[in-house]
C-alpha cells in the first residue's frame, strides 16, 4: 500500500533520481468523479478496469476507499486485489484451461471471479472445471461489437449453444463487449454512435440468450471513449473503463479529455543539447515512456509526449519527438524557438498511452495539484504497483 511522506522528510519532484512516474491525485480524483457521475445518471453500475494503474492505492479512490467491483486483465491482478479484500472481479481476457486452477482457487476463497470466453471449447473447459470442483465459475460470453479481436457477433448461430453449455454447469453469468474501434472515433457524434453500437450488440446478445430460456444477469459494456459518450444504456447493467483514471494524449486527441486532465506524467532531466539539430536531450527514453505512438494516427501527432515544467504547466510547442532506450529528444514544433533549458532542468512528459507508460515503472510518486501549484510540487505519497503478470 502507499507510503506516506512524513512532514519532517518532505521531498519534492526535484529530489528522486529521474526518470520516475508521477500521479497527480487531484486530477485522478476529478477524473474518477466525472465518470462516476455519468454512470449514476445513466443508471448503471461502474466496474472500473484496474489494468492501467495496477495499484491498490489508485483503486482505493474508485469506491471511496471500500473495495468494490473491478475489472482485471491478468490473474496476478486478480490475486493481488483479492488479497486486498476485493471480492467482485471480472477477468476480461479470454480464459484458457491451464488458468482455471487459479480461478478455482480464488473462488474457493469467496471471490466472485467472472471469466470471459467466446467458444464452445472454452465453455466446455469451464463447465468441466466447475463440475470437478463443485463450484459455480461464473462466465461471460464475449460479444464482438466492432473490433473483431475476440467475441461472437450478436447474431452468431453458436451463441445460445455456448450459453446452454455454461448454464447446464451453473456458470452462465451474462455477456460482455468492448468497443475497440472507439479509439478511432474523432468526433463526439462518432463516439456516441460507437456507444450505441456497443450497447445494442450486448443487449441483442442478451435478448437472444433469454429468448432461449437462458438467464442473463450481467450485460457489460465499456471503453473509455464510449463510457464518456453514452447517452442511453437501457438494457445494460454495468459500465467498464480503465484509462479514464489517468487519461493520456490519445484520449485528449480524441476529445475525451484535455491535456489538463492527464494525471500521469514522467519526470525527466535535461542531460544535453544539440543546437545544430534543434534538440534538447533528456534521460527519459522509451524505457520510461514506452514505445507507444498512439497519437501518430491522429490529426495532431504528439510524438512520444508533450512536455511540461515541473509544476505541470505545458511548455508551448515543446514535444518529445524521438526516443532511444534511455534518451529522449525534445524539439520545438512548427518552427517555434527552442526554450533555454539548462542541463539539470527537470521536466514532466505527458504520455501517449497511460497503460503502456505506467507499465514501465514500479510505482508512482504522488502529488496533489489541488493544494496549489509550486515550482517543485511536494511528494505526498508513493503508490507501488502490484507485482507480477
TrEMBL record:
Keyword terms, alphabetized: Lyase
Query: In terms of domain of life, where is this protein from?
Result: Bacteria
Question: Pfam families recorded for this chain?
Answer: Ala_racemase_N, D-ser_dehydrat
* Keyword Lyase set for record: yes
Q: Pinpoint the D-serine dehydratase-like domain residues.
A: 263-368
- Which SUPFAM superfamilies has this protein been placed in? PLP-binding barrel
Q: Which InterPro entries match?
A: Ala_racemase_N, D-amino_acid_metab_enzyme, D-ser_dehydrat-like_dom, D-ser_dehydrat-like_sf, PLP-binding_barrel
The text of the family note is:
Belongs to the DSD1 family.
Q: What is this protein called?
A: DSD1 family PLP-dependent enzyme
